[in-house]
Specification:
Layout: H1 6-9, H2 15-18, E1 19-22, H3 26-32, E2 36-41, H4 47-58, E3 62-70, E4 74-77, E5 80-83, E6 87-94
Antiparallel strand pairs: 1-2, 2-6, 3-6, 4-5
Amino acid sequence: MSKAPKSAVAAKPEHYDVIRKPIITEKATMASEAGAVVFQVAIDSTKPQIKEAVEAVFGVKVKAVNTTITKGKAKKFRGRAGERSDKKKAYVTLEEGNTIDVSTGL
């Protein structure tokens, strides 16, 4: 019984699995004036995966990727204790001359 090498088992995630949705908030709009776009991404995605996905999906050159993880809050849902899920945001800084218009969609 032969086993496949580990590199063959771990397949690359698809680009649309890495990028969940754009985040359009007041803070994200302020970042867009500095040439950055904010996306909610998969919690287990890495900065190189995010960079590759943004470049492939939107056809732009990425300068840098900064990420933050927001821990889920403990809240009450209909009187019962529950917890919101953790979220990961990616602040993607684009090269000079590249833009992404997140309000139009894909």
